[in-house]
Each structure stands twice: as structure tokens, then as C-alpha cells.
Specification:
The chain is an alpha/beta fold. It has 15 helices and 22 strands. Strand 17, helix 14 and strand 18 form a beta-alpha-beta unit. Bound molecules: cytidine-5'-triphosphate.
């Protein structure tokens, strides 16, 4: 159940309803299938007016179901068999009419009947004109669907197919994939407030130059995604990175170590778990120039001053029952350095990795870490950064107890 890292072998029953956004969902199907997801598709009659059932049949190499009483649709009683053979139901795009029908438990076609006959989680992705979305009737239906325990993904805003700008756009795939993965994740961090720092900091020398490091932020962002999937409320304080904001996570962007310290301090007291995955620059230029330094005037030396050690500060002021996790990216003496930092910074867990390893260094998709707590030293296998995040959070969950 903890394996919410990929859609591989997950049986996803997709219900497509009559919105022009159905063409975007065809691309989602292709992505899910490429990831190893086992996708079956039901379409309402209106949906087939926007996108041919042949499109989905070709993408899934399977029959597309659209008629309750249709012949040649593979099985009789499809409305019962289809949801039973699924791990999750995904309704996308969901029109205003679909929301109304599902909210009221109607069962007048294959899709609505299958939802009613289903006992697996249902994820609903509305898409419509903004006025239809904002209409109190639609809003009430969305509330009712949430009260029924369904996951309603908030629509996005921007340019709509009707030519107007506003809310009602089909949610982005990244967000929907997170909802799917959350369904497959154990909710052992529900109620926890997790504060994560990620990425490098950037210390300005002048308007054109800065001191920084090679951290990509991938490990911290993976932690944020996985913690959120496991039910935590996540705040992510991020240095400058080239990564998409993780859906459902409060993101605070900072540049320098001092900005990071300010943001982390503002949220530390209310957090039950703090994970400092950021690669904070230890030093900054003593004087940063507001104008570009010229070759002729600069000389060859740059005077540096020490940045605050954010983690050590948190270790000094730690609250009772708070779990504090530090990272140590090392090139040698990994365990000794990890143990030293565990004690010096007064933290519960140090996550140590080898920055010289080909698959554990900067900006790669995998990591292999050693978890050093006061009682234990444990090496995790080489895994994706999300799986590594899962291993770290397993350890954190055990420390919480
Ligand atoms: N850290 C921090 N503030 C700093 C430096 C580091 O909060 N100014 C945190 C990092 O986010 C990480 C941990 O401390 O969680 C260890 O960082 P690392 O750079 O490995 O340790 P340093 O204490 O800087 O020691 P050194 O650079 O000498 O190895």
C-alpha cells in the first residue's frame, strides 16, 4: 500500500464525459499506458461526439464501453464488472451535468451506474465554462461529491475553450497523477505538518554573479510529494530550482540562506516534522555590490562571511515531540560525518549520501542514502528519489512513535 510512486500495473477505469477537454484526456491515457497503467475506458454518448471511441480504443488496445445495453461491448453487466476490476475510477473531464448526476446518485447510463456500483476511490476532474462552475448549483454538487468521499480535483484557470478567461479548465495532468498516486499511498502522515527545505541557496556577489552549489532540489521535492501523498500538510521552502511546484504543497520561494532561515523560522514552531534537504551555502560574500563589479576594480579576492546554520538553530530551539531531519552530502567519511552532524546539530535523523557516486550525486534521478539515527545506522538500496523519500519518511514515521 505504501507504493504510491508509479502507476505501473494500477487498474484505472476512466470515465470520459462530454466536454471538449476530452481531447486532453486522450493524451493522459497515452501517458498512463506508457507508465504501465492498465487503463479501461467508458464514454458517455456526448463524449463520443467530441472524441471518437476509436481514439481511446487505439490508445488502450481495448474495447471502449459506452452503452449499458450495447451488443459487442465485451461483457454483459459491464457497469458491475468494470468497477470491480479497477483499483480506482477517474472521471475526466467531468461536465457540470455529470457532477449533478453523480452528486444525486443517478444511474441513467453506464458511467453513472458504474460509479454507483463502485467501492473503489473515485477521482473527479471537472471541466466547464467558469460561469457554469461558479453557479451555486455546481458548487453545491461539488461539495456533495466531496461529502460522499469522492476526490474532486479543483479545476484550473486560464483560457477556456469557449474563448473566455477564468476558472473551469481541466486540471493539469501532474495534479491528477498526484491524486492517483495518493490513492495508492498509506495515509500514515495524516495530521502531520511537515516543513521541508530544498535546493541550493544563491548568495549574490553583484547583480550579475552569485555563489551557489549544484543542488537540483530533486530530493527535497520528492520528499514533499511523497509526504503529501501520505496525508501530510506540507510546506516547502525552496531555493532556486528548475522543478515544477508539487501539487497540493505550500511553496515558499527564497534565494539566499538568510531568506531561507527567515522562511523556515516562520513555520518551524507549528511543524511536527522538519526536513532540511536544502544545500545551504555555508558562506556569502561579505559585501554584495549593487552594481556590476568591473574587472579593473575587483582584484582577485572575494571576502566571505559565514551564513547562519539553520539546522543547528532548529536543533537548539527544538520543540518537544518535533522530529528534526538533516541531510549530509559527503564526498568521504560519510558515516563519521553523519554521526558528527547528528550530535552537533541535535537532530533525530541524518540522511547521508555520496555526492561523488554516479547515481547518487547531483541532479540525477536516483539516490542511495544511509539513515543515521541515535540508535541505528541503516543503508537504503539505490532507488528513485521518490522511493528514497518513502524510505526516509518510513523512518520518520517510526520515530514519531
Ligand atoms: N545546513 C543548514 N544551514 C547551513 C548549512 C547547512 O541548515 N548554513 C543544514 C543542511 O540543510 C543539511 C545539514 O545542515 O541538512 C548538513 O549540511 P552540510 O552542508 O552537509 O553540513 P555543514 O554543517 O555545512 O558542514 P560541512 O559543510 O562542513 O560538511
Amino acid at each position: 500500500m505504501k507504493n504510491g510512486y508509479t502507476l505501473k500495473n494500477r487498474r484505472i477505469l476512466l470515465g470520459v464525459t462530454g466536454s471538449i477537454a476530452a481531447f486532453k484526456v486522450a493524451a493522459w491515457v497515452s501517458t498512463m499506458v506508457q507508465e504501465g497503467g492498465l487503463v479501461s475506458v467508458m464514454m458517455t454518448n456526448s463524449a463520443t461526439r467530441f472524441v471518437s471511441s476509436l481514439t481511446f480504443a487505439a490508445l488502450t488496445s481495448d474495447t471502449v464501453y459506452s452503452d449499458m445495453f450495447g451488443e459487442g461491448q465485451g461483457e454483459a453487466m459491464a457497469h458491475i464488472h468494470l468497477p470491480r476490476a479497477a483499483d480506482v475510477l477517474l472521471i475526466a473531464p467531468a461536465t457540470a451535468h455529470t457532477l449533478a448526476r453523480l452528486a444525486h446518485g443517478m444511474a441513467d447510463d453506464l458511467l453513472s451506474t458504474a460509479v454507483l456500483a463502485s467501492s473503489v476511490p473515485v477521482i473527479i476532474c471537472p471541466a466547464m465554462n467558469s460561469q457554469m462552475l461558479e453557479n451555486p448549483a455546481t458548487q453545491r454538487n461539488m461539495t456533495m461529491l466531496k461529502e460522499l468521499g469522492h476526490h474532486v480535483v479543483e479545476p484550473g484557470s486560464g483560457m477556456l475553450a469557449c474563448g473566455e478567461k477564468g476558472s473551469g479548465r481541466l486540471p493539469e495532468w501532474d495534479e491528477v497523477r498526484e491524486e492517483l498516486l495518493a490513492v495508492f499511498s498509506e495515509k500514515d502522515l495524516t495530521g502531520q505538518k511537515v516543513l521541508i527545505s530544498a535546493g541550493p541557496t544563491r548568495e549574490p556577489i553583484d547583480p550579475a554573479r552569485y555563489l551557489s552549489n549544484r543542488s537540483s532540489g530533486k530530493m527535497g521535492y520528492a520528499l514533499a510529494r511523497v509526504a503529501r501523498r501520505r496525508g501530510a500538510q506540507v510546506t516547502l521552502v525552496s531555493g532556486p530550482v528548475r522543478l515544477a511546484p508539487p501539487p497540493g504543497v505550500r511553496l515558499i520561494n527564497v534565494l539566499t540562506a538568510r531568506e531561507m532561515q527567515e522562511a523556515v523560522s516562520a513555520h518551524a514552531a507549528s511543524s511536527s516534522i522538519i526536513i532540511k534537504a536544502a544545500a545551504v551555502a555555508d558562506f556569502r560574500p561579505k559585501n554584495s555590490s549593487s552594481e556590476k563589479i568591473k574587472k579593473s576594480e575587483s582584484g582577485l579576492s572575494l571576502e566571505l562571511t559565514v551564513n547562519p546554520d539553520i539546522l543547528a538553530g532548529l536543533g537548539r530551539d527544538r520543540k518537544k515531540h518535533q522530529i528534526l531531519v538533516g541531510f549530509a552530502a559527503e564526498s568521504n567519511n560519510h558515516k563519521a560525518e553523519g554521526l558528527r552532524k547528528l550530535k552537533d546539530k541535535n537532530v533525530d535523523l541524518m540522511v547521508v549520501n555520496d555526492i561523488l557516486g554516479e547515481k547518487t550525486g547531483f541532479d540525477v534521478e536516483t539516490n542511495q542514502v544511509t539513515l543515521i539515527s541515535r540508535e541505528h545506522i541503516e543503508q537504503l538500496p539505490l532507488m528513485s528519489k521518490e522511493e528514497t523519500a518513502g524510505g526516509i519518511l518510513d523512518k520518520v514515521a517510526s520515530l514519531l512513535q
